[in-house]
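Aim 2, interim progress: modelling of the coenzyme A-bound target.
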Amino acid sequence: MKYQDVYARSLQQPESYWREQASQLPWYRFPVTTLAPDDNGWPRWFPDGELNTCYMALDHHVAQGNGDQIALHYDSPVTGARQSFSFETLRDQVALCAGMLRDLGVGKGDRVVIYMPMIPEAVVAMLACARLGAIHSVVFGGFAASELAARIDDATPIVVVSASCGIEVDQVIAYKPLLDQAIDQAWHQPAHCVIVQRPQLQAKLMGPRDLDWHQALARAQPADCVPVLATDPLYILYTSGTTGKPKGVVRDNGGHAVAMHHSMRCVYNMGPGDVFWAASDVGWVVGHSYIVYAPLLAGVTSVLYEGKPVRTPDAGAFWRVIEQYQVNAIFAAPTAFRAIRKADPESTLLNPYNLASLKTVFMAGERLDPATYHWVKNLLGLPVVDHWWQTETGWAICGNPMGIEPVPPKAGSATLPMPGYDVRILDANGKDCAAGEQGSVAIKLPLPPGCLATVWGDHARFVNSYLSVFDGYYTTGDGGYKDEQGYVFIMGRTDDVINVAGHRLSTGEMEEIVAGHKAVAECAVVGVADDLKGQLPLGLVVLKDGVDASDESIAAELVQRVRDKLGAVACFKQVKVVDRLPKTRSGKILRRLIRQIADKEQYQTPSTIDDPAAIGAIEKVLA
Ligand code: COA
Ligand code: AMP
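Predicted structure of the complex, ligand included:
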């Protein structure tokens, strides 16, 4: 069937479309009801279905006689470790880990925070939570202690699973002291921390709270899968919003499993026995969906790569991994390919490798700029697919439906809406924009399975953040347009979220941290264009009168402050001290104008500006 037919059916008959998708999975109790509102009035998929996501992802394949097939290849150029896990081995390790967590008091609905580097134990811990019906919340390793503390306080976990260290290129990052600091800062105290001791650095364990992963596992008995309702949460994943408090995106079990399984074929054209490599991190949604859940649910082999596209050891790393594991499709952020191009412009490091297994390159996390698109396409001679989605949706909103009917791509476009997503471009009054006209990108409700169910512990925030702008629509926070043929072009966020090397960050949160410095009177943080990382944050600060320190020393303190409070991943390294910030007469800082000046774009002086001379001051500093 052609894309247009499939897509039309998914919107016209959503219940029958998604029931059909759901029927491909091994439920304990197949749902009778397909879509019905929950107590908050929010439409939920398969509310009376019963399943276990871990069962579907592991045990089912073993039961089908595919236990020997490889589920996961772990490849770590930073340690030299390589290990392959069959579905059966992974199932056994997960069952044991689930038994260990159960012994520590973790049961259905309990939360477990996972703060780990890219090691197999992170995947095992996630699936072990799913096995128990517990809710995991993975926190990306590049976040600072206070970010981890905020997530511990919000998710209130019984157990935290962590590791002694992560390895960033040639730097060993001690995780345990960060975890200890976070627990010191948090009001909520987990009962236990289970720590994977890595040979590169042993962590100091504080008994009886801290346990050694290997010792605790040695005492455990395997645990069986616990049936849960489709609407029971599988995980909470925190993402940047407009304030300093991250939003806990809640993903359910049933809709998620259906969407993940469906997307592996529809979006990526991957099926049992194929090898899929999402070069991301389990701390991000890409890692949740496409390193862990979707490939395993679909019986696809996944690659867990603890390394970078460059410097581990060189810009040939991606090509080496593709050849080594016979990868059929890779998914990475455009910034990774820009890094490879920068380090190896002539692509000489590609020469030793045979990439015959590779069929498609997928990119997301930030806009795929046409230059990177053409470079990768010409280099590999393969389809390069940009696809657009977000933590909230869990899978592609727009993409090229490779498993239904590949359509001709257009550089700069995320292509067409995926089944179930009624994507609209709305003007300020909520009316559909004409083709070519930019507006807010919104999705008409209901959202398809797999999208967020709520914000953890704060449904009102969910409604305010996503549902209150346009009645009957989910607001994505992105701006863009559709062309005459319905191709969707995503042009950037309409709020203060920025994308740094494919990592989603909040400039509002950075502003809160910068403004907390005693010398700062006011500040603005904007995302400015960067050739490698897409965007980088730039801070402009006005100092209080009488500050007795050089601009350089204040700037250095602010850089350190953001690194300490938000994390190195923010890449907050540029700070300029200015006399004043351009503002409207009502006192609103003109951040868009600042960004345009920094990016050397044409701009129009807003008629509402309070003091036009402020522009000259900014231009001088940013020249
Ligand atoms: N734990 C601890 N620290 C981490 C970390 C982690 N998991 N991940 C990143 N950091 C730190 C880095 O060490 C670096 O610190 P530094 O300022 O001391 O050098 C900082 O955070 C920024 O890291 P990163 O963005 O990775 O920058 P880089 O310069 O080391 O590498 C790229 C540049 C382009 C190679 C890298 O950003 C990259 O691979 N990007 C792809 C991102 C991606 O896959 N995103 C997922 C969305 S699909
Ligand atoms: P995250 O929640 O971290 O996945 O970030 C989601 C945001 O990243 C989106 O709202 C977009 O702003 C941006 N983004 C992700 N993929 C793309 C893409 N293919 N094109 C343009 N922007 C993208």
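The chain has two domains: 3-307+387-480, 501-622. The mean pLDDT is 97.
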